[in-house]
Amino acid sequence: MDFFSFGNIIVYIDKFIKFINSIFFVILIIGISFALIISPVDYLQGDSVRIMYVHVPSAWIGLSIFSLIAISTILNFIFKIKNLFLFIKSLAPIGLLFTCLSIVTGSLWGKPTWGTWWAWDARLTSMLVLMLFYVLFIFSLKYFKNNENLTKILSILSILGIINIPIIKYSVEWWSTLHQPASIKFLGSSSIHPSMLFPLFLMLLVLLLYCALIFLMKYKTEIIKIKKQNIKRL
Amino acid sequence: MLTKKIKKRLLFLISIILVTLSFLIFIYLNLKQNILYFKTPSEIFINSPIEGNSMVRVGGMVKKNSIQQNNKEIRFILTDYEKELIVVYNGTVPNLFSEEQGAVVEGILNDKKYLIADRILAKHDENYMPPQMKKILKENAK
Prior knowledge:
- By secondary structure, chain A is an all-alpha fold.
- Chain A is built from 6 helices and no strands.
- Chain A has a single domain (2-182, 192-233), classed as Four Helix Bundle (Hemerythrin (Met), subunit A), CATH 1.20.120.
- The radius of gyration of chain A is 20 Å and the shape is globular.
- With 142 residues, chain B is of the alpha+beta class.
- Chain B has helices at residues 4-35, 41-46, 131-141; strands at 55-62, 68-69, 74-79, 84-89, 102-111, 114-123.
- The chains are: A mainly alpha (234), B alpha+beta (142).
């Protein structure tokens, strides 16, 4: 099990960060030029459809990061794995960032299309609930020291929060909402034209790389913090 | 296989899940009515008290060739292809508001077929495509 020792991990993290840094800006420039310039306008919404290229990927990322940290929290609670705890700690703020981003861009998009910044419909409200769960999660990471209580509280939060995830996903199908139904389905065809779908997935890649970059930096910082504490103890 | 500690933790998790689920069912049963963002014109027609003068939110499609506009107000018909509702509104409508597009109207019911709106929101569908594509689709439909 030497592979997962902190010293080893830091070496790999540095390699990854270097690799992502070398390709990130190229992909970012390609992605942004596709999203803002090359992709066509929408027949109905015109240029405001371009908000989709940030809004949709950040919502996906917000949802999937919460599912990831919820599952890892529960695994961590049962089996107590040190690296898993660091994983949760460094991933949670990124999820919050992207959830906030999707809410903000969503309301910027809502004003010119729906005519309102905010509506208390099921999709928007459940997304706000997800944001609150993230906030609670991060607060408890900050204010409870690393012990049995913390993992208990975190796993309660993740069980409560993970129920919200399918509610967000299917809210637009189960109930009448102002938000339109999903354009892209797991199975079956999407109702977004391919010329708009390509920039969408390109932007998803850009944002995912950005996530990976901050995540790795944060993970490294956490490891360094632990090492520093150990040095003090000696 | 599983140590005593892990069994204890699993038990804790399962009890939390059960408590959460029961809470959730309770909340859902109470909120059932409020989760829906809007009602359809048919639902308004079937069961809606008019005497209360309370706010309702109705969603549907704006009927083709039904928008009448003068300098005081805009008047149109909201339909779910079964029942229709006449809507009167004075104010600005959102950009996407047009015929054969979805709209959500907030206001006070005068009777079961007549609504005085306070606010109009446009609803759009999940289709995104460039304008040329829409043209081709329209021509094909003919």
